[in-house]
Amino acid sequence: MNRRDFSKQVLALGSAAPGAASSQAADYYQEPAKKLPVRKYDVVVAGGGTGGVVAALAAARQGAKTALIEAKGYTGGTVVEGGTALHSFYNLWKAFPGVTKRHVVRGIPQEIVDRLTKAGGTSGHAEMSKGYDYDSVCTAIDTEIYKLVTMELLEEAGVDLCVNTMVAGAIRQGSRVTGAIAESRSGREAFLARAFVDSTAYGDLCAHAGAKFTEPNDYPACNSIGVANVSLEKLHRFLESHDALEQYCEGLRDGKPGHIVRLQGRAVKLPPEFAKESARLGATMATTTVHDNYFMFIKVNYKLPVSPTSRDAVAKAELELRRRQFKTVELFRKFVPGCEKAFIARTSPSLNIRRGRLIACDYDITLPDVLEARHFDDDVFVYGFHDSAPRMQIKNGGTYGTPYRALRVAGIDNLLATGMMITSNHDAHMSTRNTVSCMGHGQAAGTAAALCAAGNCGTRDVKYADLRKALENGGVYFES
After folding, report:
1. Nearest Cα to 236, choosing from 227, 220, 247, 228?
2. How confident is the model over 10-24, as a mean pLDDT?
3. d(CA 303, CA 220)
4. Contact 161/68 with Cβ under 8 angstroms?
5. Which residue, among 261, 286, 224, 297, has the nearest Cα to 139 in the 3D structure?
6. The whole model's pTM is what?
7. Fewer CB within 10 Å, N side or C side of the chain?
C-alpha cells in the first residue's frame, strides 16, 4: 500500500455514515468522536527497538522531556529478536592489511555494550579469526540482559517508557506533526510534542502523518530462535570436517575468555539432504552466543508475497515460520553432532523484518556513498560495515557518513526517521539497516529532536554546528 492508498483508507473510515451499510465493495463504520486524554512532551519517540532506545536516551540527556512508545512489553527490537550479533562498532580493518583499527561507533551504543559487559551479557568486541572479511569483530549479546539494561538506562534518564502501547494515528497541522495517537489497555491518548522520531521499523508514525513512502518488499522476513542443549564445539568440528567453516570467533562466554561465540558455515558443503532441506526452510548456518550449550540465534527466513504491513499476509507467515522453526531443529538433531537433544528455548513474539515502509527523506543514501566511503558536510555519525561483505565492502576499510538530511522526513517540519526506514537502494540498505547503524541513527535523531524542541523550531532549522557539538559531547566519533 502506498501513501495515497493509505490516506484514502483513513479518510474512508472517517466519512461513512454511522453504522451505515455500503453497497460498494467495502463497508465502513464511523467511530463516534471523543475527547482523548493528552500527555505533553518535548520529544516523542515512536518505537523502542534498536534505534528508538538510543534516540530516547539521547533526547532525554539533552534535557528534553521525552516519551518512548513501544508496542511490545520490552525494548530492543531487532537486536533481541532478529539479529545474530551487533554489526559493527569497528571499521573492517582486518580485511585490509595496514589499515588502522578504529572504534568508529561510540557514544550511547558503546555505553550499552559497557553496561552489558558489567552484567555478563556480551562477548565483548571479540576479534574474528576467520571470516574477518565480513566483520572484523563479533559483538554477541544476551537478549534478556539487553532488554533489562536498556530499560534501566531509560529509567535512569527519566524517559517515560510506554510499553504495550501502539502508535495508532498522528495529529498534523500544516507541515508539522503536533501529536501521536497511541492506544493501550488504558485507552487512546494523544501524545503532544514539539519534535518526533519514528523508529518503528514499519514507518507507522510517518505513514499516519502523511509522509511519502513506498513498500519495496525486497527482503524475506524471519523469526530467529534460541536453541538450547547443544554444543558449539561439536558444531565447530562438524563444520570443519566438511570444509564448511566460514566464520569463527572466540570471546567471553559465560564470563570465560577464549571460547567460541560465533560460527557460520556454508550449508552447500554439508550433507546434501541437510543442505537441500535447510535451503527450503530458509535456515542459515550462522549463530552467536554468550552462553555454553546455547545457540542464541538460528535464523529462519520466509519471503512474503506482499509487504509485511499486510496483517493477513503476516498472519500466514507467522504460522509458516513457526513450522519452519521446528523443522529446522529436527534437522539439527538429525545431522549435527551435539544437537541430538536440542530444543527451542526462545522465539520472537512476532516475525522480524528488514524493511517495511521506505520513508522519503531529504536525502537518499546511495550505494556509491557507502562503498566509496563518502562523507558529508552534515555527517551525524560514521559507519564501516556492509552485510554483503566480502562481495561489497567500504573502500579501503574506511567509513562513510550518514548525513543529517537523510533522517529528515520530506515535507514534514519536525519528524525524523531512523534505521531500516531510510535508503532506497537495496544494496546500500544492506549497510544502513544494520543494528549498530540504526543505533547511530537513533543518537543523531534523538539529539536533533531535542534541539528542535529547545529552540521551538523545525528539523531543517537546527544549526549543524550545534548538532555536531551536541553529538560530540555525547561521545559520537567523527572521522574529521
Report:
1. 247
2. 46
3. 4
4. yes
5. 261
6. 0.94
7. C
